[in-house]
Amino acid sequence: MLYFSSRGKTDPVSAAQAITMGIAADGGLFVPEILPRLNEEDWLQLQKSNYQQRAAHILRPFLPEFTQDELNKCVNAAYHSKRFDDPQIAPLVKLHDQVFIQELWHGPTCAFKDMALQMLPHLLTLSMAKTEEAGDIVILVATSGDTGKAALEGFKDVDRTRIIVFYPDEGVSEVQKRQMVTQEGSNVFVAAVAGNFDDAQSGVKRIFGNPSFNNHLADHGLKLSSANSINWGRLVPQIVYYVSAYVDLLGQGVVEAGQPVNFVVPTGNFGNILGAYYAGMMGVPINRLICASNANNVLTDFIRTGIYDRNRRFEKTLSPSMDILISSNLERLLFEITGHDAGKVSVWMEQLKNQGRYEIDPETKNKVQSIFWADYCNDDQTLMTIRAVWEEWRYLLDTHTAVAVQVYQNYQKETADSTPTAIMSTASPFKFGSSVAQALFSPELIQGKDEFTLLNMLSTATGIQIPKGIEGLENREIRHKTRTKAEDMEQTVLDFLQL
Question: Which helix H or strand E contains 263, and what residues bound it?
């Protein structure tokens, strides 16, 4: 299987090349030439399999250069009991009636990014061997909170790699920040960027697209790659848990083979929900993909109107991992849904770069709306949802999953759709403890208390143990104190690399 750039100006590459490169030379994202389809035999095998076996089976056709033994080693190294605190890896929990929550946060950093970023280092190092990469890889990451820590944890002390993470200063939760700035590892570096996530992400894209900068690195035996979901090796493992969720629904007798389901996804950069779209293209019967946004509702407006417009106020919310106005993976969806029309996609991406907006044609808009439904909720609704779900079902939501639950409730009110539904839970509630505490406790009770005191209060009140990835975080040594401006990110990279 070959991989094509969504902008069509570079030659197709192998899976190993796509993973090693991260992003195409023309600035586009790599997309597989075809999508494999799951047949009846596949479904029967998947129902008998654990998560590791499901992952190896689903990934196999996407990575033809990898032997089955190599893939087995990758998935078993990524998903094991020392890394994940639940043997099911991505357990499906019934909330009520026909509504389920898939918990994607049982990995070492307590966020769904672990589902891909525990796998990516293994895929990348194997890809480097297969492409006979002579130099070392420099992983460059922009994070809205969760990707950064998950990437750091995945790549720490991995041979022939160095990893640099940029996060928006004051744009992540205290737990997210503390997880990153206390990160150990001889090959890791973290820097805060003055501005928001889009400033950090644009800076990273600018570095990738700077030929002289990349040539300078090459002269020193270094090559850039990405751990963001722009890297196909980061995105493809996310397909697995959607297939796994459907298999679990089959196994629990919630649906019969071929019966459609809904997936509800709290969405920022569009990579997570794109995994659901690809799962659907592979044969998972999907009724609706419900795209849930916070006040940064650029995707809601796009799905409803066909107009993508980032020229709006950037909102800092209680669900900071979704505080994004430039959703990079939407480019992949447009490439797929237009029948791989790279010309159209290139024009739209150029308009986004130069004007901050673009409008898709009516045919493409109709195709998007036939699959996706979108809405958003504000911070007050997020807090009310956390409290209501805890009081009614004794299930504790984080702020991002609460957005998804609220949007799903909006969807049900508008459509009366009773299709079995899986809501993607993207983070442990303890990653956003102060906000969850705000939802459950009175203002007088939490006033003046720091983040980590509130975590202990939450644990005591709910009877839920603080995850190991967060417990005792306030006592760990702060190792990374660098702050930089967006326009100085190139120099920050060079300083760390000592070039």
Answer: strand 261-266
322-338 CB burial, b ≥16 within 10 A, e <16: bbbbbbbbbbbbbbbbb
Which residue from 454, 458, 457 is spatially nearest to 397, judged by alpha carbons?
A: 458
Neighbours of 339 (CB within 10 A): 9
- Domain membership flag for residue 332: yes
Total domain count for the chain? 1
d(CA 221, CA 384): 53
pLDDT of residue 122: 95
Model pTM score: 0.95
Which residues touch 235 (CB under 8 Å, ≥6 apart)? 116, 229, 271, 274, 275, 329, 332
Q: What is the CATH number of the domain that holds 105?
A: 3.40.50.1100
Residue percentage of the chain with pLDDT more than 90: 94
Residue 146, pLDDT score: 86
- The average pLDDT across 16-41 equals 94
Q: Is position 125 within any domain?
A: no
Task: Give which of 439, 459, 432, 437 is closest to 449, Cα–Cα.
Answer: 437
Question: Does 311 map to a domain?
Answer: yes
Whether residue 360 is contained in a domain is answered as: yes
Angle between helices 451-462 and 433-440 (to 10 degrees): 50
Q: Is 297 helix (H, G, I), strand (E, B) or coil?
A: coil
pLDDT, tens only, 161-182: 999 999 999 888 899 999 999 9
Alpha carbon distance 418, 433 (integer Å): 32
Active site positions, annotated: 113
Q: Give residue 393's domain range.
A: 92-111+233-429
State the pLDDT at residue 420. 98
pLDDT digits (tens, 9 = 90+) for 321-357: 999 999 999 999 999 999 999 999 999 999 999 999 9
